[in-house]
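input
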Amino acid sequence: MEVAGPFVVHNRTRGATLAANVRLADTPRSRRIGLLKHESLTPGEGLWIYPTQAIHTFGMRFPIDVAFLDRSLRVKRVYHGLAPFRLTSLVWGAQSVLELASGSLASTGTAVGDELQFSPLARCTIARCTMKSATLLMILMLASGCVRSTITHDFGLPASQRKIQQAPASPDALLRSIFQQQTVGAFNPVTGDRRIQTLETRLALMPQDAAARLDLAGIYENYGLRDDAFEQYTAALKVHPSEPAALGVARSARATGRSVEAIPLIEAYIQLHPSANSWNELGLLYGASGNLKAGESALREAVTHDAESDRMHNNLGYNLLLQNNAAAAEIEFRRALELNPKSATTRNNLGGVLARRGDLAGALEQFQSASDAATAHNNLAVVLLEAGQYEQSRQELVKALAIRHYFAPALANFKLVQERIRVVVASQKASGPLSAE
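output
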């Protein structure tokens, strides 16, 4: 019996409905399966995963929109059209994730800072349930800490048997109260760090103090308060355009999914103070917003301004790789390694290119140059998994686990590969053997 959900998800800030049929995944099994068994996700459908601060799309068959939510159900970060076989970064302060059909966020204008509301789609009308069984179920769920316990229905009982006449509270309001209880006594940097209080007092007296805003933004960033950092970096950039402010805007914007918001700010700064770093950040912002071609142009400008920077060549190579231009990407990665042979990031990127074209020995060599043997075999397995070569991926994971028996990433990937292989076998069995006419 599904006690909680499906939900209607409404964007209170924009006055728009994001989805009308959202399921809740709040158990280890439901979170692990997620949308893996779905062939597609139609507009209006979605999955609400609680609790989590990061997700992956390994094994999925379609892109999705993703919104990370904090304890108040405010949007912390968004991903538009997140492709299969991708891994998001850890979102500090997030408590749950909403996965939607690709295009849902853009069509409703949903952005970082928006407040969402989750409401039950319909009341439960299971007449067979007695008050005793319903009460027992709610007690068990409360004892296990299940979020779904916040939904209380009458289960179709006649009015004479209902002990609670008030309408149930909305799930998002009850969820917020739980989150607030969990954070009682927690350290709050905004009120607990005297440096922040001092800088805020200073800015109250001198709002045009760009140095104070940069200092405050840096502290916020160190605490992981990326949205607050973005606001301070932006204010500092407007008061006194400088490279630290511009780079801070770009960096915090990418971390909070506000790349589109930051692009015009960095473009305006580049008109006044073009540099390799500012062009590089603009290219990364374009890439994060999905405009890879514009990102490529900006990154090429960065390379032009600093042709001896391995970082610029690596970033350009990665952009080209995302555009499926593996040959051009390999040239940039190899140039980056000529400039800095110790770059683990570039070696991993080059290893990915070599593995995709079938040079597994060369790929493994690059991965091993960047890390230990177990990690190298695991990384090669991930690339093979992305390419749909499940058996070869499993073989590499077996090698990784033979080297390090309890290697968590390899164990997780091994489970994922096994699941994909089972899906393929089940699909083949369902289609049956081909017969000649």
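quick obs: The two ends are 47 Å apart (CA to CA).
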